[in-house]
Design a protein that fits this description.
This protein is α+β, with helices and mostly antiparallel strands. The chain is 41% helix and 33% strand. The chain is built from 6 helices and 8 strands. The strands form 2 sheets. It has a 5-stranded antiparallel beta sheet, with helices on both faces. A 3-stranded antiparallel beta sheet has the order 1-2-3.
Length: 192
């Protein structure tokens, strides 16, 4: 059908064609080089198609993992810290809706103070990543959130971004403090 259209109209056409016997994908360009002439150029694009398919699958896996992970995850601009995306756990735990976070920085929405953000930025600049750094953050309702923060520079579409992952350790931290206080009291009782 495509070849006939080229022959009737004289307009070139480009289309993909799978050759089952060879198991190869071809990009075909059909045209008329002159009156009563017909030509077709076949370009083997099998590897490119396979690479594109693998890339799409990888991106889909990353998106599903990012949005469904139980840890707080964000993707932000490296230069100014503007949120590009936040996952469902971030929304659920912090109370910041996606519409309130995306397009703003963590400092602008009050999630982190500027001094702590600057320390994280320095660590990222020096090492390209920050790993398991304890960090105090603020939820939308003002409650304190203690997290173990990790951040790494990643490439998304040829642009460097910051992938941030935080694990909420608020309850564990409160338990450790209560346990330490209890031990201190018992030590004082035994000494006295």
């Amino acid at each position: 059908a495509t070849y006939g259209r080229v022959a009737l109209t004289g307009e070139p056409a480009t289309f993909d064609r799978f050759h089952a016997e060879l198991g190869r994908q071809f990009k075909v360009t059909a045209f008329q080089p002159g009156p009563n002439q017909f030509a077709a150029i076949f370009e083997d694009v099998t590897e490119r198609h396979q690479a594109e398919k693998a890339l799409r699958q990888s991106e889909e896996k990353f998106q599903k993992t990012f949005h469904n992970a139980p840890l707080l995850m964000t993707i932000s601009d490296v230069e100014d810290g503007t949120y590009i995306d936040v996952n469902e756990a971030f929304v659920k735990v912090t109370g910041y809706h996606r519409r309130d976070a995306i397009g703003k920085t963590s400092v602008e929405i009050g999630f982190i103070n500027e001094a702590d953000r600057n320390r994280l930025t320095e660590g990222l600049s020096a090492e390209g990543r920050v790993y398991n750094r304890e960090l105090e953050l603020r939820c939308a309702d003002g409650t304190r959130l203690v997290c173990l923060y990790s951040g790494e520079l990643i490439d998304i579409g040829g642009t460097q971004r910051l992938l941030s992952i935080a694990s909420d350790i608020t309850e564990r931290k409160a338990f450790e403090q209560a346990l330490a206080e209890s031990e201190r009291k018992w030590r004082n009782i035994l000494v006295n």
